[in-house]
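pinned: reference chain
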Amino acid sequence: MLNKYIITILSLFFAQTAFCELDWNITGSGARAAGMGNAFIGVADDATAVNWNPGGLTILEHFEASFVGGASLYNIDYEPSDNIEGDDYENYAYSYDNSHPGIVFGSMAYPFRIMDKKIVTAIAYQKLLDFYDDYEFSYDLGTYIQNYEGSSDGGVSALTFGAAYQIIPSLSFGACLNYWMGSFNRETLTSNDTEWSYTESEFKNFKGFNMIAGILFDFSSIKENVPLKFGAVVKTPFQLEYDLNYYTEDSSLNTSESIYTGKVDIPTMFGIGVSYRFGDFFTVSADFESRLYGDAQESQFDENGEHVSWSPSYLSDSRNDLNQIRIGMEYLVVTDNLIIPLRLGAFTFPTLRADVENDMDDSSGSWEKIQTSSEQSTGFGISLGSGIIFEKFALDISYTYLNYEYENINNYPSGNSFSDKFVVSKNSMNFSAIVYIDSFIK
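pinned: its structure tokens
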């Protein structure tokens, strides 16, 4: 019976670990924005504005190309329950690391004028969800040793087409169309030293479509000694649809194959931001952004179009939205030949996870969770960055650290309670390059 509890706990851990890696705080990209704590809605003065605030595109003065690369390291510490007498649950504690690099953003933007009105067009690519995973470990369950190994790759990206129009010198409006696409491929193997094994393979294709609209109001165009900018952005909701092929095989060569369809609610997201420049070299910024995941669900359907047993399910454990506050600053060190920016930022980090307590009911023959309490897990993050800006190109680098934790408690009819605590931290580096193409062809 004890092993049954342990297997249940470990299965929950693997499911939670995979889900933790998906950051549903979908924002924009860029090492400069990251260095300022992603407080960029009221700044939005480079090509990454297509995702932060398209209204800011009209600030661009050059025909330019940019790309952003990044590297991330996740660490997830798992602490299982230690309240069962006679068993050392520290044997089942686990620390999980996962690191990999990748290109996360690329764009081209072109400014021009029609009847003295400035217009900027842009095309961009952004990776929004990353499914990379790779693990291998074992647990001694007394009567046998359980082995786990698996890997996944792929992600969901958006191809973006955008344009911005300067309505009056102080006010610009921009809009973008996003086509979401991507795939997910997962292979897992569970085995033990009794020569039993179980293999799972899963492949998904994703697609979706939404829009982003934003405005940027520059008070300095009205009054020179008020260097204040205000921005607002809204991202329309949509359903991220997918096709799923699922295949299993065990050590006795028993196989099964299933085909499903599914959809994930990507909700309305909106934000406001301000930035203020002190003198010519020092800028501070602040954002508030809300992502309405409280009622968002994932639904999955079988070949007959019927919901599978677990579907639909809410994405948010606490049924709360993801409301985030971000602050940042940038100071420019100006020399005769180049500019060196110094950046710093901090932010809250709301998640879809929560501290959850459940009463477990087995009266139906299988365990059923009855949730008795839930409190959203919200972490924090800090960032810093720098770079070097020349006449024809600019390079930026940033470092970000974030942390959050949550706990699941299951109370069983026997009186036993099992507590699973997860501590998640992420370190990430971003690298950006902007090339002012027109400076090379003049």
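why pinned: The first helix runs from residue 2 to 20. Confidence is low (pLDDT under 50) at residues 1-9, 15-21, 83-89.
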